[in-house]
Specification:
Layout: E1 13-19, E2 23-29, E3 41-44, E4 48-49, E5 55-57, H1 59-77, E6 84-91, E7 97-99, E8 109-110, H2 118-127, H3 130-137, H4 146-156, H5 158-163, E9 166-168, H6 170-179, E10 184-185, H7 186-189, E11 195-196, E12 201-202, H8 204-210, E13 220-221, H9 232-237, E14 250-251, H10 252-259, E15 267-272, E16 276-282, E17 294-297, E18 303-309, H11 313-322, H12 328-337, E19 346-348, E20 366-368, H13 376-401, E21 407-411, H14 418-428, E22 432-435, H15 440-452, E23 463-466, H16 470-491
Parallel strand pairs: 1-6, 6-14, 10-13, 15-21, 21-22
Antiparallel strand pairs: 1-2, 2-3, 4-5, 5-8, 7-9, 11-12, 15-16, 16-18, 17-18, 19-20, 22-23
């Protein structure tokens, strides 16, 4: 969607707060769902990577980033800040932390990429009927989900596990701090692996297996139950927002579909950021969960069917940080002229594990076929082609699950590379519409905030078509098969982690 100058913005205005996996953004939008120029506040933050596979962050650091981002957005709006009528909140799915009775964090925020619960996930798979759990919750028993992480924390650090009064996501922690109460949206709960998707209640069998009761999780609400009345310190800090409704945090994937207009069974969203996903949002009862995919929710009425890959733009950054690629514009130009799969490499891009379609408990990356002639652009091309092959596996499953899908719309930071978009279109053998809306999750949060005010903004539908090349698709089909053979051959070399020691005792 185009941006709009402040003087041309149409009322009412809303603020979208997007707690992403690498930065926090606060952006103002007008009645037509257009981002207001100069209104973005953005603050980056870092994760801590531990030697035993942990990926965690200080929850106070993320909240501090959120508060600073809101400050920046309101300053950028100037006098228009007083016209903000509602706040929508997006946050990355599958994160969890523990808080005490007074709302103080007792644990770090644990990322979906934290691998330390692999052994706990394996134990849960043995103890429970994993297929039945998948059918009820829409989620595999897998280290990326909080269900497995809670099992690991219970066994690895039982004293801290018992001390936690409530387990929450970072969005709930934000609400607890700003409004002195927390509630979990059905959208966020659907990505925990702990929600009975059909009943929209916490899953009793899983809670019992984890030694929890529903009172140690937040009460469930839908997106039509906003918070109101900021706590005094924040009302003084942001008087323009003191009395406006704040929607409960929703999952960024569902919001990306809404923000890019991918609503209904005919239009799928492809997101390429740090990770990647293909999702279809449907207004229908929860379907049987297709093997290899997941089912989450945008709200009580709308269901999200899709699959996620754990490595997207992260592999591009990994190569960029470790090799002398040269100026980005030169690399992009060279990628556009290289033959498909012409580097002689086979890559498993599993630097942060992997999810769909096989949901391995532990996965590791590999690069096979390097010679003295291999150069950095060879490595980059092989890496981004390898990511495209994973997208192709998910795309085939999504089309089987939702046959009505006809259009595929891409958004996210990775869409800035036209070369990568062409590679993905060629690997899928299907045209991609590269959305004009780069910040799909933020706009999705804004759309929900506008709807809370009784306003229906236009659907984002613009973009640049990227058509597949049939000859390149044939080469990539062969390369995909080669990648799967190598994945099977190397699987036995990756150990299943039986268990980990207690998390380090660090203050939060």
């Amino acid at each position: 969607m185009p941006t709009v100058a402040p003087r041309s913005a149409e009322l009412p205005l809303v603020l979208a707060l997007d707690l992403g996996s690498s930065s926090v953004r606060a952006i103002a939008y007008d009645r037509l769902g257009r981002e207001i120029d100069g209104s973005e506040g953005r603050v980056a933050y870092d994760w801590r990577y531990t030697s035993d596979g942990g990926v965690e962050a200080d929850p106070e650091l993320i909240l501090g980033a959120a508060f600073t981002a809101i400050d920046g957005a309101l300053v950028g709006l100037g006098p228009l800040a007083a016209r903000v009528g509602a706040v929508g909140v997006s946050t990355f799915w599958h994160n969890i932390l523990g808080i005490g009775d007074g709302g103080r964090p007792l644990t770090p925020v644990y990322s979906w990429a934290d691998e330390r619960s692999a052994g706990a996930a394996a134990a849960l798979r043995r103890r429970l009927d994993a297929d039945a759990v998948w059918r009820r919750t829409g989620c595999a028993i897998h280290p990326s989900y909080p269900a497995a992480r809670l099992a690991w924390l219970r066994d690895a650090d039982p004293a801290r596990f018992r001390a936690v009064a409530r387990w929450v996501s970072i969005g709930e922690f934000l609400a607890q701090r700003c409004f002195d109460r927390a509630a979990c949206s059905i959208s966020m709960a659907s990505g925990t692996g702990l929600l009975d998707q059909r009943q929209c209640t916490w899953d009793e069998e899983l809670l019992q297996a984890l030694g929890l009761h529903a009172g140690r999780l937040s009460p469930l609400v839908d997106l039509d139950a906003p918070f109101a009345g900021l706590a005094a310190p924040f009302a003084r800090r942001w008087p323009a927002l003191a009395g406006v409704p704040w929607l409960p945090a929703a999952g960024d994937g569902a919001l990306a579909n809404i923000g890019t207009g991918c609503v209904g069974p005919g239009r799928a969203a492809l997101s390429l950021g740090t990770t990647g996903a293909i999702r279809v949002l449907i207004d229908a009862p929860v379907p049987d969960v297709p093997r290899g995919l997941w089912v989450y929710r945008a709200d009580r009425a709308r269901v999200l069917v899709g699959g996620a890959i754990s490595n997207g733009g992260s592999v591009h950054r990994w190569i960029q940080d470790r090799t002398a690629l040269g100026p980005p514009e030169d690399v992009e130009r060279e990628l556009r002229t290289r033959p498909a799969d012409g580097h002689g490499l086979v890559v498993l891009p599993f630097f942060a594990g992997e999810r769909a379609p096989d949901w391995p408990l532990v996965a590791r990356g590999a690069i096979v076929g390097m010679t003295l002639r291999t150069d950095p652009v060879d490595l980059l091309q092989a890496m981004i082609e390898a990511v495209a092959y994973r997208f192709a596996l998910v795309w085939e499953l999504v089309r089987d699950a939702v046959p009505a899908v006809r259009q595929l719309v891409a958004s996210g930071g990775g869409t800035r590379s036209a070369a990568w978009m062409q590679i993905i279109a060629d690997a899928l053998g299907h045209e991609i519409l590269v959305s004009d809306e780069l910040e799909g999750s933020s706009r999705g949060a804004a759309v929900l905030a506008l709807r809370a005010l009784g306003v229906e903004p236009p659907v984002a539908a613009g973009g640049r078509p990227c058509a597949p090349d049939p000859s390149r698709h044939g080469r990539y089909r062969d390369a995909r098969a080669r990648q799967r053979r190598m994945e099977a051959a190397l699987a036995s070399l990756v150990p299943i982690v039986a268990g980990m020691g207690p998390p380090a005792d660090r203050g939060s």
